[in-house]
Amino acid sequence: MFIIITVISCTGHGPIHDYPDCISKPDNYIESGGCGNVFVYQFLDSTQALTVRIIPDSIDQTETCQTFHLGNGDIGIEVELEIAGDNPDSLYFNYCNDETQMNIGKTTVYKATAGQVTISILFDDKNIFDLDPKSFSYISIKIDDLHLVNTEYSTEKIIDEIVLWDVSVDGIFP
What we know:
The chain has strands spanning 33-35, 39-45, 48-54, 66-70, 77-83, 108-123, 136-150, 155-170. By secondary structure, it is mainly beta. The chain has one domain (33-170).
């Protein structure tokens, strides 16, 4: 009599990707989400989310790491911190959802005025839909010394470092 034991190992949210040396998976990894052309977000807690929107034409179509300085005229990268209000009947973070919601609440928004953004992209050349590799990709974003300002309340928040790691997004480049 023979007994065969098969061990299957699964990892987090999908394949493990090797990025260039410019961004490492953080020790305090928090899963990030993303969608569309290119929108990435990470919840800092249940009431705060950091969002990054990149206009595809503003970055090179390459897997080589790219670094940008917010506030120095780099156009095409928007970083915001959204803070939910306190209405329990409102939905405050409705990212990547095509459905129209009736109870969307107003968030307090802090816009980035300074910081260094490093972007690493991996094109998926083995996607299951056999599409152009540049139509489905993974992105990691590291932001250092991020300064965010809310002009309505004249307040500033600073985040020393944040990494939005290995987020799948579709349609990065046309």
